From TrEMBL:
It comes from Streptomyces ziwulingensis. InterPro entries: CutC-like, CutC-like_dom_sf. Signal peptide: none annotated. Pfam families: CutC (PF03932). This is Copper homeostasis protein cutC homolog.
């Protein structure tokens, strides 16, 4: 039997989380403020969702739009509060003004997240040199996933990069799982699956009424069917 592909769905609240779970999501990315492309949610929301669903939840660590870390010590305090509220997995990713990974910020948060698994998010798609970024992060404890479209403009443009990185699986810097998201459509899925990519991330695709509406269990179930049970 083939290994089940991971389906991660963006959730903003408990209603989203319950619908995503009902539709067959394996994991949630928990954020707030999608007008800013997803920021750190309130601690109370994290606690409520952890109590409402039994699937994995990765919580965004990002305090402002863009990919600069900003106030790192504030991020550290927030991360500690989220862990106390039951968060066990996280999403983060920071670049410096030159488009290189902000190692100081990532190292500081990795210390606080010791023992947690985490995703480096789509900041990788804005990096000046994504290969260099991946190699510099190769040995960071807890980092097990890159959320990427292969391009800052989405999967349509990033598909060649995604397929190339899939072929490098197992090389230094390429041990982490590729979680594909960002303009991802159902028609992309067969090509990605054929390349051995086994993790998929959806946001707007799970919301037939757009970001003003909730996650639809039926929309999530459609993705689950295409990805396989």
């Amino acid at each position: 039997m083939s290994k089940r592909a991971v389906l991660e769905v963006i959730a903003l609240d408990v209603e989203d989380a319950v619908a995503a779970r009902a539709g067959g999501a394996d994991r949630l990315e928990l954020v707030t403020d999608m007008a800013s492309d997803g920021l750190t949610p309130p601690v109370a929301t994290v606690a409520a969702i952890r109590a409402a669903v039994d699937i994995d939840v990765r919580v965004m660590l990002r305090l402002a739009d863009g990919f600069a870390a900003g106030d790192v010590e504030r991020l550290v305090r927030v991360a500690r509060e989220l862990r106390e509220a039951g968060a066990e997995e996280f999403v983060l990713g920071f670049l410096d003004p030159h488009g290189d990974v902000d190692l100081a910020a990532v190292e500081r948060l990795a210390e606080v997240l010791h023992g947690c698994r985490w995703t480096f998010h789509r900041a990788v798609d804005r990096a000046a040199d994504r290969n260099s970024l991946r190699k510099r992060l190769a040995d960071f404890p807890g980092l097990d996933t890159y959320l990427t479209a292969g391009s800052a403009t989405g999967v349509d443009d990033g598909l060649p990069t995604l397929l190339g990185e899939a072929r490098r699986r197992g090389e230094p810097g390429y041990e982490q799982r590729l979680l594909v998201g960002g303009g991802l459509r159902l028609d992309h899925v067969p090509t990605l699956l054929d390349a051995g990519i086994d993790a998929f991330h959806i946001g707007g695709a799970a919301r037939p009424r757009g970001w003003a509406g909730p996650v639809s269990a039926a929309a999530v179930a459609q993705w689950r069917t295409v990805l396989g049970d």
